[in-house]
Amino acid sequence: MQEAKKIAIVGSTGSIGTQALEVIRENPKHFAVEVLVGNSNADLLIQQALEFNPNSVVIADESKYKQVKDVLFDKDIKVFAGNKAVEQIVESENIDVVLASIVGYAGLASTINAIKHKKTIALANKETLVVAGDLVTKLARENAVNIYPVDSEHSAIFQCLAGEWDNKIEKIYLTASGGPFRGKTRKDLENVTREQALKHPNWSMGAKITIDSASLMNKGLEVIEAKWLFNLKPEQIDVIVHPQSIVHSIVQFEDGSMKAQLGLPDMKLPIQYAFSYPARVQNAFKRFDFFNYPQLTFEKPDTQTFTNLALAYEALKKGGNMPCVLNAANEVAVDAFLKDKIKFLQMSELIEKCLHKIEFIQQPDYNQYIECDAETRKLAASLL
Ligand code: NAD
Ligand code: MG
Fold first, then answer.
1. Whose CA is nearest to atom 31 of ligand 1?
2. CATH 3.40.50.720 fits 5-149, yes or no
3. Is the Cβ atom of 216 under 6 angstroms away from ligand 1?
């Protein structure tokens, strides 16, 4: 029998990270934890380390180092702290797969370093491809590294493409639940609260992606993510609203045939598939029951109301550093909305201003992406 795959979970204390640990807990024959990385939730990180006994643990927040070290010092688990350690830990020799599950731009550096060290990537952190998709995919090609999508829509496309690698894609349809505000008008959205925006109908996720789902920015980021993962033109990527979140996405081939992947909305499956690919691993996750879903429905997205989706297409079509600007402005906007500093609709206004004010760069290098991110954050903060 094959040895269990050794996995580094970079962002283990978050929504994706904890679900990845559930997958590993259910399949100890197939998967083992090699590294755990968290930002500042030391209690949870310690608890995870005690259960899964990894080789190393990293806490980004250096002020929590002592707390973690004090508990783990006699457990034969190495403990590190700080952002540099987060970036470097993915180099560890024994890692087979790096699950990139940090949220936002903060996940870029560790993912790039993992690719440089030829680690297979299970990618949850879509922002990595939004910010620097050309650079990241080029680096992956140069290092012969596979990037397996964890995002459910992209996992669906990837699963539909298995066995079809030489067949051309005509287009793909990314499905979107529509979020908690589906069907609302701009007037309705003027005064929606943080609490309302955080109530996603189908998925339980981290705060940032939940707000992105309510504003449809999540789908915009996913359109850009799909471009880079599957090498598509913007015109080949369509978004359809599917409120039941059962059809996770669809590929249409050149002969008009369409393949879709279906299942209950549960991130454990795409996480597991990214770990086990090309194999499928038996599990006891809940199964879909047709009679609980008498109707699967599809609608056109309302980009007049949810302008973020249109802004994401605009950034994708312009290319260069524009998706990086979109992402940075969105991170500032979401953070401000979560802190009650701006209203829901002001998020798109802020992003649009940044897209029009930051100077266009056709082919940024890594340092230019870092500068562009910083510059956009500064501009966005000044516009709040
Ligand atoms: P989350 O906020 O629940 O978790 C984020 C994780 O990243 C935490 O472990 C946190 O400690 C860590 N982190 C944050 N900043 C860090 C830093 N500077 N250094 C080190 N660690 C840091 O977010 P999430 O919902 O799990 O989402 C993670 C990523 O996966 C996002 O990019 C999101 O878009 C993507 N994703 C999530 C879901 C989902 O269902 N949650 C689905 C698809 C894609
Ligand atoms: Mg998704």
1. 103
2. yes
3. no
